[in-house]
Amino acid sequence: MGLGFAGVGALMLVLVLFTYLRMINGRAAVRERRSSKGRLVIEQADTLVAFGREQDAIRLLEKALEKEPDSTAIQATLKRIKLELEEREQDDDH
Questions:
Q1: CA-CA distances (angstroms) from residue 40 to 15, 72, 74, 84?
Q2: Residue 82, exposed/middle/buried by CB under 10 A (0-12, 13-18, 19+)?
């Protein structure tokens, strides 16, 4: 006795859903790895800033943005450091 049309359809649906869920899980894993790398770069940049090495931090973040141009966390950190450096330079001029 065969599966029949409904049985084959149900089996195909299960296979498609399984493939879809694996694809979504894979994408989430890639996002998580990127997110972890981004956090590490931001921590390194903040450490450089703490030691007065703002230019090194800026270069590090710019290089990271080449690899992850959509990272809003890296973009925001870069803007923050540039702004802080600008403000400090203006204070030094006065």
A1: 38, 14, 10, 21
A2: middle
CB 81 within 8 A of CB 58: yes
Q: Which amino acid is at 80?
A: R
* Residue 26 contacts residue 39 (beta carbons within 8 Å): no
Burial profile 13-45: b = 16 or more Cβ within 10 angstroms, e = fewer: eeeeeeeeeeeeeeeeeeeeeeeeebeebbeeb
Query: Among positive and negative, which fits the CA dihedral 59, 61, 65, 67?
Result: positive
- In this model, does residue 5 exceed pLDDT 80? no
The Cα 39–Cα 54 span in angstroms is 17
The model's pLDDT over 65-85, given as tens digits with 9 standing for 90+, comes to 999 898 899 999 999 999 999
Residues 6+ apart with CB under 8 A from 84: 49, 54
The model carries a pTM of: 0.62
